[in-house]
Amino acid sequence: MSEDALVNTGAVEWPSPDSAYFAVRRMQTKLHRWAGDDISRRFGDLFNLVYDPAFLMHAWERVSTNKGARTAGIDKATVALIESRVGVAAFLGQIRDSLKSGEFAPVEVRQVMIPKTNGKLRRLGIPTIADRVVQASLKAVLEPIFEADFKPCSYGFRPNRRAHDAIAEIHYLGTRGYPWVLEADIAACFDEISQTALMDRLQVRIKDKRVCALVKAFLKSGIFTELGDREETPTGTPQGGILSPLLANIALSALDDHYTQQWHEQMDTDDQRRKRTRSGQGNWRLIRYSDDFVLVVSGDRHHAEELREQVTAVLAPLGLRLAPEKTRTVHIDEGFDFLGFHIRRMRKRGTNKHYVYTTPSKKAIQKVKDKVKAKTYRSTRHQDLETLIRSLNRSLRGWANYFRYGVSKAVFSAVDYHAWGRLMRWIRAKYAGRHRLGMAQLRRRFCDKGWRFAHNGVAFTGAASVPVTRYRYRGSKIPTPWTPQPATTTTS
Predict the structure, then answer these.
(1) Phi, psi dihedrals of residue 313, rounded to the nearest 5°
(2) Pairing state between β 223-224 and 458-459
(3) Which of 109, 116, 218, 301 is least surrounded by Cβ atoms within 10 Å, i.e. has the fewest?
């Protein structure tokens, strides 16, 4: 039986979520292996997988368990509404039938405006539940194929990879002679990606015309604005959709391919890099997380600044441009912010040795302080103290879990000190009664150990309860979920 014939699974019954997961994983492993074994292979006969019951059930599990399950698209249908009125099997059956018959057509996404930390607004599109399920199924088919092609320098929205891997690589290279940094950001990336360029890169691997048509239909589905107007989407990917990050990575992999090829051809060995240095040339590496990326440079400032034009030339065919206000050249001794961290090389106190340190950025610290302020504002005094403490603990612990891989202990303590002060004022205002609540009385009534707030068995633990640890640099050998695990041998 040929490999393409294996893709046509022919499943007809709705599997349980667990059996669907394992069936999808087995098929993804095959797709990933075939893509890795033949880098020139173009995949056909994939559309059957998109409407395969196992893939649709797996997609439904992802959509229904996501925190956006309670958010409706323009049809006002939520997951709970579908489960109570239609039923999961009937709902997925309708999707499957429309896909098989070729009648499925995505509808406009509901647009909402989300405030950004800089005071501006960001557009977010909310697809219908049906469109989300189809996008999730389509992503499950396409992702293992393109993961075989994606380069190690890309970390954003990829399985088994995270922001800390990108930070770890910058830290690794910063300590090994790459002091200059071109810090770059793509302007309105998800809104301005050329759909023609994106489809061209998709079709390098996908020859199934129905899959390509489905992807294009999602790109062209349009936007339903808050004012009730319909807008066309001649450029960009559907923001808010499950498929959008993968499509953006497919387009932006042009940047990864350019600098990976450049590295292998000109800078791959120590001899090549030394020769370039002797001749006055620089060496550089790309680290990208979605549309945020840096180029770390071994050389002089002008080597980093010259890369700006090179990046601009690579992005232009994709319909993209750099954001001038967020693109700059900086020395690592000055420090720069990336993915919420501040990265800077400094002298270690008491020594003459210099090390690269990563700490939470000022913007990240202010953001969590603002969240604490909102939770302890006067309008929240109607809630119980233990409810507020639980909410603060949850927010601070989640924030600290992200930043625990760095020199963050002092920052955690400072954030907790801020939260303690806000909580103290909240308690004194809520429980003041006729007379002002003194600090001695506050401690006696609302603290258990020293000055730690606690009420009805719930204690304030804050960010400092999260231990700070080191994140190990994993290099370029991060496995995908479908990479075969090496066999382990046992000794008697």
Answers:
(1) -70, -35
(2) unpaired
(3) 116
